[in-house]
Amino acid sequence: MKNYFVQNVPNSHRSHLIFAKSVNSELITPIPNHIPIIFIPIFTFLRLPYLYFKYPSGNFLCEGMSGVYFSSVLKIVRPKINIIYHDADLLFLRDYNHLNGLKKVILNLFLGKIDYVISDSVLSAKSIKKYLKINSEVVYPPVEVNNFKFKPNLNSKQIIHVGRISSEKNLERLIKAFVKVKMKIPESRLVFIGPGNSDNLKSLASDLGVKIEFKGFVKNLNSELNNSLIGYNVSNFEPFGCNGLEYSLSGVIPITGRKNGNNEVLTESKIICNEKSVVDISNKIIELMSLSNTDKLNLLKSLKSKSEKINDKSQSVKFKNAFGKLKK
Question: Are 149 and 288 found together in one domain?
Fold first, then answer.
């Protein structure tokens, strides 16, 4: 049976493209990029006569809901196709759990067509089981191991956040925690790298009387990372994401929240804090900054060793094996 990869619109994540390639999948773009995702079911329905003959059978690997919308409609006329959902993230499930009755009924029409799930963490798999009643295989997204340079700056007092600025990243608590860190370690600095509207965070920092650097996109990310000691990865929800591993590969000590799939790989209690507590976040940063250089280096070497194992080659093999278990 042929394999297909129904990509997200407008862009696919790198890890999904790697996984799709590992199982020799033919790429399907379910809708032109300029059309909103919500119209995928209608667009697909109108093309059913063509799609009926184009795809008589197959395993349809779906990246996010774009693929589910497309494949679920196709399954109306081709009931024997297999829909394999990947990208089962906790943020989606949190939203699902709070949908009103009609929206949930409509969404369930599509989710009910899913045959298998490959989750990006045990955290996601448990949520999928809880909300959708589906067991799933777990394969962590690969990290671009060779893109990072392990150059620990053990005497640095810089905290860095790399990634988009959004509410689920828990950045307001970081700024409030930084105030407490600054009182204990006056030379400490906080730097934000990445896209997003930072106006509210700048206003909060101004109100609290702390100076923070917002750099947006940077040409040399490795340079910024190698000037930092602590990497912030304490989101409210983080099914996986690769930040914690990327920090570790750069010689930066990550701190994570309790609900973070990175913990399943890094397995280090010293870096975990309560994502709901400003005090706990600040205490964790101070604790890690106060370690001896020997202890910092030993911790970083351990985290690096674990992160290196989640590479393109190893995860492609694991995904191929998981995929082989699921498909008929």
Answer: yes
Distance separating alpha carbons of residues 254 and 62, to the nearest angstrom: 31
**Mean model confidence pLDDT for the chain:** 90
Which residue do the tokens 């003959």 mark? Answer: 53
| Whether residue 155 sits in one domain with residue 110 | no
Per-residue pLDDT tens over the stretch 220-253: 999 999 999 999 999 987 888 789 999 999 999 9
Q: Domain check: are 116 and 189 in the same one?
A: no
Q: In the prediction, which pLDDT does 8 show?
A: 77
How would you classify the pairing of strands 82-86 and 59-63?
parallel
Q: Are residues 127 and 87 in the same domain?
A: yes
> pLDDT per residue over 265-305, tens digit each?
999 999 999 999 999 999 999 999 999 999 999 999 999 99
Residue that the structure tokens 């995928």 belong to? 40
- Residue 275 and residue 127 share a domain: no
Q: Is 131 exposed, middle or buried (0-12, 13-18, 19+ CB in 10 A)?
A: middle
Nearest to 72 by CA among 81, 58, 117, 35: 81
Question: Quick one: 42 and 182 in the same domain?
Answer: no
Q: Are 42 and 65 in contact (CB under 8 A)?
A: no
Residues 205 and 101 in one domain: no
Domain interval for residue 88: 3-141+312-326
